[in-house]
Specification:
By secondary structure, the protein is α/β, with parallel strands linked by helices. Helix content is 39%, strand content 14%. It is built from 11 helices and 12 strands. The strands form 3 sheets. The protein has a 7-stranded mixed β-sheet, sandwiched between helices. A 3-stranded antiparallel β-sheet has the order 9-10-12. β5, α6 (156-165) and β6 (169-173) form a beta-alpha-beta unit.
């Protein structure tokens, strides 16, 4: 199988990540649930991973790194824990349902009002629209760093500057970019970074989290056991305990810790250059094939390594099935949990076939994918 579905999850993990998970499953106890070596080892490892993530995202405080099961849970925590009745939020047409559905729920249940920066037929936005949509009761901007459908990047420095100027919260969905593009919470004025571990961070599924700037108070999304302050009837107010009710995924966090070491050793620039080169090779190979339509803004290569396309009027699921069954190429068809962007692109009925490239893909695999697309189109 040629695996080109890395935007959904990176299937191949570095060997140290696998080794760390296996070791953790045979050695770690439950963090904060005892004073024996198994529990203490888990606590040390988990705090050490918080420190690595704080450095990775330039989050000023390691205790403001909170672990979740994925970025969906992290985004729900941030959105639902920061917005109140009467607040106004600005998002964009590029957003994933992990942003859209919590916002729509708050619109219905808490009378939170929403505005969306529109995207054009290439998936591009006009940043002046942020100023146009600003209201006196605007509380936050919630946006993705990179589209999971087109690969187009948001200029998060520009968005962060806008938020700082107007004293708004900036909640960033880094699901598609963490591990490939540098993110600096302080320099880019980000209030909360929501990330997942199983994509470009090269960690296990079931890992993710939030990095929270000082002074940002998120209400607990869930409450329960913490191993500390047992006689307090409410959830403890301090981060990270405030948002971490229940047993953490220590085995997965151990793998994420090893993945962060691997990324530091390898270098984000090397990873980004490799993945973007493969995506560009693929784009240049398929965009000239008659009957192929590619979506997104390819005037720049400062973009996530994603190329989505359609072949003539074929249903995207049918094309993806043919690629898997006849060519052993894994892709992602359909709507990609990005309904507003599909509406902007005009692909709601057909969907799109997404090819997403990762660190472990090769030029030979990319050429094989180009040949497969050409064969289907012909």
């Amino acid at each position: 199988m040629i695996y080109l579905d890395n935007a959904a999850t990176t299937r191949q993990k570095p060997q140290p990540v696998i080794d760390a998970v296996v070791s953790a499953m045979t050695t770690l106890g439950n963090s904060a649930r005892g004073t024996h070596e198994g529990s203490l080892s888990a606590s040390r490892m988990i705090y050490g991973t918080r420190e690595k993530l704080a450095t990775f995202f330039n989050c000023p405080r390691p205790d403001h790194v909170v672990f979740t099961a994925n970025s969906t849970e992290a985004l729900n925590m941030a959105i639902c824990g920061l917005l109140n009745p009467g607040d106004h939020v600005i998002a964009t047409d590029l957003e994933h349902n992990s942003v859209l559905r919590p916002l729509y729920r708050l619109e219905a249940e808490r009378s939170v009002s929403l505005s969306f920066v529109p995207a054009d037929r290439q998936g591009r936005i006009d940043y002046e629209d942020f100023e146009r949509l600003l209201r006196p009761n605007t509380k936050a901007v919630v946006c993705t760093h990179g589209s999971n459908l087109t690969g187009d990047l948001m200029d998060i420095q520009r968005v962060g500057n806008f938020c700082q100027k107007h004293r708004l919260l900036f909640i960033l969905d880094a699901s598609q970019t963490a591990g490939v593009f540098p993110i600096d919470m302080e320099r880019q004025h980000i209030s909360v970074v929501c990330f997942t571990g199983h994509k470009s961070l090269l960690g296990p599924q079931g890992t993710g989290g939030l990095c929270i700037a000082p002074g940002v108070d998120i209400r607990p999304f869930k409450v329960g056991g913490t191993g500390v302050q047992t006689y307090l009837p409410q959830q403890p107010p301090q981060y990270p305990t405030r948002l971490e009710a229940g047993t953490l995924n220590g085995h997965g966090i151990a793998g994420l810790s090893a993945a962060l070491d691997y990324l530091e050793e390898t270098g984000l620039e090397a990873i980004r250059s490799h993945e973007q080169a493969l995506a560009r090779q693929f784009y240049e190979g398929v965009s000239a094939i008659p009957g192929v339509t590619v979506y997104g803004d390819f005037t720049t290569w400062d973009r996530a390594p994603v190329v989505s396309l359609n072949i003539r009027d074929y249903d995207s699921s049918q094309v993806s099935d043919v690629l898997a069954e006849q060519f052993s190429i894994a892709t992602r068809p359909g709507a990609h949990c990005a309904p507003r962007l599909h509406r902007a692109l005009g692909t709601m009925a057909q969907g799109a076939v997404r090819f997403s490239f990762g660190w472990f893909n090769t030029e030979e695999e990319t050429q094989a994918a180009i040949a497969a697309v050409r064969s289907v189109a012909e």
